[in-house]
């Protein structure tokens, strides 16, 4: 009988409630008072089944609510306009900002050029 489907659980709950009502009718016909009926083992077992099914239905409802909430959030995100990303602008910014390694290489190249110019000026 284990199922995660709400319809199946509702059917199970209706079944057990029917069993409980029939059992209560039988016990009432026997002339038992409420205290004795409440202590009846069969009645306790049936009510426990109904409580279990009620708990499972609550979990199913909670999951369905969460799924609906996530769908709503996703729909809101899809409705928002997307920001266009400029790949060219990003690459230009990256080229403008050089890493320390690139800066050091450029400094070395400048020093070499200065040395060449100094030699040319002397010679």
Order of helices and strands: HHHHH
> Count of helical segments?
5
**Straight-line N-to-C gap:** 101 Å
In total, the number of strands is 0
Proportion of residues in extended strands? under 5%
Question: How does the major sheet shape up?
Answer: none
Q: Mean pLDDT score, rounded?
A: 87
Q: Rg to the nearest angstrom?
A: 39 Å
Give the % helix. Answer: over 70%
Q: Provide the structure class.
A: mainly alpha
What topology does this entry show?
Elements: H1 6-29, H2 34-39, H3 41-79, H4 87-96, H5 100-122
Helix pairs in contact: 1-3
Describe the structure.
The structure is a single chain. With 123 residues, the chain is an all-alpha fold. The chain has a domain of 74 residues. It is built from five helices and no strands. 2% of the residues are buried. The mean pLDDT is 87.
Highlighted features:
123 residues, mainly alpha
Describe the structure concisely for a colleague:
The protein is mainly alpha-helical and 123 residues long. The chain has helices at residues 6-29, 34-39, 41-79, 87-96, 100-122.
């Amino acid at each position: 009988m284990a199922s995660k489907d709400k319809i199946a659980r509702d059917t199970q709950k209706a079944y057990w409630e029917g069993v409980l009502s029939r059992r209560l009718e039988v016990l009432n016909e026997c002339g038992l008072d409420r205290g004795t009926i409440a202590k009846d083992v069969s009645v306790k077992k049936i009510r426990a089944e109904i409580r279990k099914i009620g708990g499972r239905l609550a979990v199913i409802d909670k999951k369905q609510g969460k799924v609906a909430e996530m769908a709503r959030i996703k729909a809101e995100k899809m409705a928002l306009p997307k920001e266009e990303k400029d790949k060219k602008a990003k690459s230009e910014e990256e080229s403008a900002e050089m890493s320390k390694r690139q800066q050091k290489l450029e400094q070395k190249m400048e020093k070499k050029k200065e040395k060449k110019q100094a030699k040319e000026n002397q010679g």
